[in-house]
Every structure is written in structure tokens, then in C-alpha cells.
Amino acid sequence: MNVATIERVVSKKQHDNADSLEIVQILGWDVVCKKDEFQVGELVVFINIDSIVEPNTHFQFLASKNYRIKPIKIRGKISQGLCFSLKILKDFTNKTNFDEGEDISEIIKASHYEKPVPRKMTGKHKGTFPSFLIKTDEHNLRNYPHSLQEIAKKDIYMTKKMDGCSATYYIKNGNFGVCSRTLEL
């Protein structure tokens, strides 16, 4: 899963409740940022929600949140991710040319956030997720807004991901097993 990519500002609009803020659209996500910080069509560093970054000066404002990026309300509007000027990349790499959609997760040391195992689960799980099973990771449609045109006027089956409801059940060699997203229970 690409958690940090180079993306284009699709649109921007004034924040209804703050003169110094605006909302930019990156892919299908709304991100609250400083007014006039970005222009429509500009390439930016975009970090998805449910990500975590390693501490550094650019991300110091996330210290109180343990460097985790999650959806937040800013003056009444949801912000879903972070975006930065491409200029910050000079502090991470000597590379100067980046392509739209390019994965830069390793460069800026960003990774997908996995919830820790709750303490109440300690001692109650059998082990890690079995290696003989395939773990799927469905991407959010907001990361692919142009795909809506591909499925227009087609019969589709949609599901809704409910946080905390991932489960896998299996029968192998006559044994029945139950797994959470990361553990065999």
C-alpha cells in the first residue's frame, strides 16, 4: 500500500469557517491547509490517513499524536491526509525529479499504521496470521477517483469496510481456525 505519494492538487476551495485556511482535493480526499499554500495542478507530497511517519523536523507537529496521520476536523471540516510542498523532499533525498503517483513512502519513512494488539488480547491469541493464507488489502476508492468513470453504467457489488471488523475463517487439514487482521485467534 502506498502511504506517501506524489499527487496533483485537483481543486481547492475556501474553508467556510476560517479565512486563513482552504480545502484542497488530492485524488478523492479533502485536505485542509493554509490558504494559497498550493495551486490547482501543482504536484505535492501526499500522505494518506492511517499512516505513521518517523519523527523529523517536518513532522514535529505530529509528536503529540505519536506521528500518526488520521482524519481530523479542523474548524468544522474533515481533513483526510497531509500534503506538503515537493521542496521538503530535498531534506530526504538527492533525487530531484518525481512523477505523479510515485510512491515515496520509503524516502520519507512513512508506513501504514497497524493498530497494536489490545492488552485484553494478550495471551488469548494462537499466533501471527498464518502464512498459508492470503491477506488482502483493499485500497480506498478515494485513491482512484478516475475509476468511477470505468464503472459507470455497469453492475457492481460494493462493500463497506467497517473498522475493527476484519475476520478470516479457514479449515486446513480438518482444523478450523479464526483470524483477526494480524493474528490467529
Tell me what portion of residues adopts beta-strand conformation.
25-35%
What is the residue-averaged pLDDT?
86
Main sheet record: 5 strands, antiparallel
The gyration radius over C-alpha positions equals 19 Å
Total number of strands: 14
Q: What characteristic shape results from the CA principal axes?
A: globular
End-to-end Cα distance, whole Å, is 25 Å
Order of helical and strand elements: EEEEEEEEEHEEHEEE
> What structural class do helix, strand and pairing data support?
mainly beta
Uncertain ranges: none
Lateral arrangement of strands in the main beta sheet: 3-2-1-4-9
Q: Given the structure, what is the number of helices? A: 2
User: Level of helix content?
Assistant: under 10%
Question: Would you write up a description of this structure?
Answer:
The chain has 185 residues and is mainly beta. The protein contains two helices and 14 strands. It has helices at residues 105-108, 147-151; strands spanning 4-14, 21-26, 29-34, 43-47, 51-53, 68-69, 72-74, 77-79, 82-85, 110-112, 127-128, 168-172, 175-179, 183-184. The strands form five sheets. It has a five-stranded antiparallel beta sheet with strand order 3-2-1-4-9. It has a three-stranded antiparallel beta sheet with strand order 6-5-10. The chain has a two-stranded antiparallel sheet with strand order 7-8. Strand 2 (21-26) and strand 3 (29-34) form a beta hairpin. The mean pLDDT is 86.
